[in-house]
Write a structure and sequence with these properties.
Distance between the termini: 29 Å
Number of strands: 4
Largest sheet: 4 strands, parallel
Structural class: alpha/beta
Helix content: 25-40%
Strand order of the largest sheet: 3-2-1-4
Length: 93
């Protein structure tokens, strides 16, 4: 059986709750049987309720928390680590 590769969409963020929720909703609209992917959001020190909003509105989204010192590259690395653990073989940043 040929299985499609799992693509992970990595989304780093810092205190952009409303933008993040719009982004995730748009990505979720792209999910189909032919286009399957996992969304990994890395919240780097967010204190604006982003994590709670994601858990409430998109609980299937994978989240990783940082302490505010990761910046973009650190967020991408942490997100890729989580995605690899989930079986992802391809990454979209």
């Amino acid at each position: 059986m040929n299985r499609s590769p799992l693509v992970a969409i990595l989304v780093p963020t810092y205190n952009r709750r409303e933008s993040l929720l719009r982004c995730v909703k748009q990505l979720q609209r792209l999910q189909t049987e032919l286009a399957s992917f996992v969304i990994v959001v890395v919240l780097d020190g967010c204190d604006d309720g982003s994590l709670e909003a994601l858990k409430g509105e998109a609980p299937e989204v994978q989240t990783v928390e940082g302490d505010g010192s990761l910046w973009w590259a650190g967020c991408i690395n942490r997100g890729a680590e989580r995605a690899r653990a989930l079986g992802a073989t391809h990454y979209l940043m």
